[in-house]
Specification:
The structure holds 2 protein chains of 2 kinds. The longest helix of chain A has 39 residues. In chain A, helix 6 crosses helix 7, helix 8 runs antiparallel to helix 9 and helix 10 runs antiparallel to helix 13. Chain A is built from 13 helices and 2 strands, in the order H-H-H-E-E-H-H-H-H-H-H-H-H-H-H. Chain B is an alpha/beta fold. Chain B is built from 10 helices and 12 strands. In chain B, the strands form 2 sheets. In chain B, strands 1, 2, 3, 4, 6, 7, 8, 9 and 12 form a 9-stranded mixed β-sheet that branches. In chain B, strand 10 and strand 11 form a beta hairpin. The longest helix of chain B has 34 residues. The chains are: A mainly alpha, B alpha/beta. Chains A and B meet through strand 1 and helix 6 of A and strand 7 and helix 7 of B.
């Protein structure tokens, strides 16, 4: 009786776990299918040359998505220039330099930053960062790609810090002891032993942080000005731009279902999906290469 | 019988009790509805500019008259009018006058659109209070937004770049501004906003940027304007510079204003008539003013 009962509950639990595991794959496939079935018709509605043109003004039939793609890239690039050095250095400080009590305060604080809703960050951007940048840098307006980059950097930093710090912590203590025993200074140990040893973990952290910035919507919609301008020089970083995410978010609500504009918005969704997927694939490639190498060493 | 079976049994018993309880409740509810009141259903569709106002009207009216249920949908003035032509709505909202060909099409379908002005809408052009400019012509505003004028000094102001602000393209105000100001009402004109116009997702965003940035120019419905920004006088067809206000809109002398309409099939009767009378009443027009549109004066339609 009791064995039978155990069997029954075991079967239920196994099936339950199996179904949850499979359903997550199923959901991703369904979302992908939906995205493609709604987005691909755009290619038949609008000629490719039109999609690759330089003007986005959908209510008059201008469907050039180039300014939107470039806009997203500029903001992400700007964010990475800010977040990568800052994030990695913070991780190094927390993992290697800071005394234990300080590290114990800093890490939860940084992780708390990750929980900050992006709309709050956008609000800070509108009220404080953008007027400040306009005054200090003498810009025509503070709603620029750079403002977006700065705030998105703030969103990416917690991810980068948290994962890089874990990677640094996972470097065996014997590495550090060994190098210090050879008479190398602490500074040299950090930059020539510990950080290179944690390199792949840090790269994964960077890629995941960037993945977050490409997909971020609310903050960029609030602070980048949403003007679909082609960024063509370094100066463009300090001018308004329009990202793919902000375009989808602000236009999807009002668009007539099944219209050309609707399909083009889904097409932008596909482009965005391809971007984030590429970043994630690169990130997982990097971490799996690490595993292979360590397997080689062990064998 | 083991415990699982017992539990299941109890579960089904209680489930059936609960379900039968629901069944009884539904029946009594039906009886109340059927005997005490006669229900009516109104379909209201059209202009996105007016959809908020129409929703507020419907909500408020249904609070007072629970027997009427009104469904409000947007889709644009054209959508509303074509639904009226095919006789699938009771009231069509439109932020533009019905076209002659639409009337002919409706007549062919045995539908006779009857027009009622339910509110007015004025769009104020605003700049930062520090900006010395206080008046512009429609042509100048059009040249600013299409990118022909890029510095305030070209208009006699300070040597500052012009930062143009607009609502997003899905906003009815955006479309009206495009047609009435940028294209100066010429439907063959294909001018559009210059690409570097900032498209902000909310009215509040426009007001706060204009209030903080001396380079900025923006436009917005009269109701959204706060004292932090400076409203420009705009030249009308008589050559006078006029500031937007409820009075100047009602006198038809402020140039960037429009009537908002509701169309019905023939003279409204019954519930439709009571509803539309209510919209023109003080209670209905108070909602108009609350939402930042210009209410219709009493005794005027």
């Amino acid at each position: 009786m009791s064995a039978k009962k155990l069997n029954l509950s075991e079967v239920i639990i196994t099936k339950g776990v199996q179904i949850s595991g499979l359903s997550s794959i199923l959901f991703v496939l369904l979302i992908l299918f939906f995205l493609i079935s709604e987005g691909v018709p755009a290619l038949f509605d609008v000629p490719i040359s039109e999609l690759l043109s330089q003007r986005w003004y959908p209510i008059e039939g201008y469907y050039g998505i180039v300014p939107l793609i470039l806009g997203s890239l500029v903001v992400t690039l700007g964010a990475s220039i800010i977040a990568v050095p800052f994030g990695v250095l913070t991780a190094v400080f927390i993992a290697e330099i800071a005394p234990k009590w300080l590290a114990e305060i800093l890490k939860p604080l940084v992780e708390l930053l990750a929980g900050l809703p992006s709309v709050v960050l956008g609000f800070l951007g509108i009220l404080i960062v953008s007027p400040f940048l306009r005054d200090v840098l003498k810009l025509p307006t503070g709603l620029t790609a750079f403002t977006g980059s700065l705030l998105l950097g703030g969103i990416a930093i917690p991810t980068i810090v948290s994962i890089s710090e874990d990677a640094l912590k996972n470097v065996p203590v014997s590495y550090r002891h060994g190098s210090l025993a050879l008479g190398i200074t602490r500074w040299q140990t950090i930059w020539q032993v510990t950080v290179p040893a944690a390199r792949t973990g840090i790269l994964t952290a960077i890629m995941l942080g960037l993945g977050r910035t490409i997909g971020e919507t609310m903050t960029v919609m609030m602070v980048t000005g949403n003007a679909p301008v082609i960024p063509d020089s370094l100066r463009s970083l300090f001018l308004p731009i329009r990202t793919m995410t902000a375009t989808i978010a602000s236009e999807m609500g009002e668009v007539a279902s099944g219209s050309v504009h609707y399909h083009v918005l889904f097409f932008i969704g596909i482009v965005l999906f391809v971007f984030t997927m590429t970043v994630n694939i690169i990130a997982s490639k990097i971490s799996s290469r690490e595993i292979k190498r360590s397997e080689r060493i062990l064998s | 019988m083991n415990t699982i079976h017992k539990k299941l049994f109890c579960f089904f018993i209680s489930l059936s009790i609960i379900l039968s309880g629901c069944q009884n409740n539904i029946q009594t509810q039906d009886e109340i509805d059927g005997t005490v009141t006669t229900s009516a259903y109104l379909e209201n569709k059209g202009s996105d500019t007016m959809v908020n106002m129409a929703l507020f009207w419907a909500e408020e009216y249904q609070k007072e008259n629970s027997e009427v249920s009104i469904s409000v949908t947007g889709g644009g003035s054209g959508t509303g009018i074509s639904a009226l032509i095919s006789n699938t709505v009771d009231i069509a909202n439109a932020s533009r006058k019905i076209k002659q060909e639409e009337i002919l099409e409706a007549n062919a379908n045995d539908v006779y659109p009857k027009e009622l002005i339910v509110a007015r809408d004025a769009i104020a052009v605003i700049v930062n209070p520090e900006n010395p400019i206080d008046r512009l012509t429609l042509q100048q505003i059009s040249d600013i937004y299409s990118g022909k004028i890029e510095n305030w000094s070209e208009l006699g102001g300070d040597d500052r770049p012009i930062v143009k602000l607009s609502r997003e393209t899905n906003s009815g105000t955006h479309v009206y501004f495009l047609e009435a100001v940028i294209r100066l009402g010429n439907s063959k004109d294909k001018t559009i906003f210059s690409a570097d116009t900032l498209l902000l997702p909310s009215s509040e965003g426009i007001i706060s940027e204009v209030a903080n940035n001396p380079n900025a120019i923006g436009y917005d419905g009269l109701g959204y304007i706060t004292s932090d920004v400076k409203v420009l006088a705009v030249e009308n067809s008589l050559g006078d510079y006029i500031l937007p206000s409820i009075d100047t809109v009602n006198q038809n002398i402020y140039p960037i204003s429009r009537d908002l309409y509701m169309y019905t099939n023939g003279e409204p009767t019954g519930i439709i008539k009571t509803y539309m009378d209510w919209i023109l009443s003080e209670a209905g027009q108070k909602i108009v003013a609350d939402l930042g549109f210009v209410p219709i004066l009493k005794g005027e339609t």
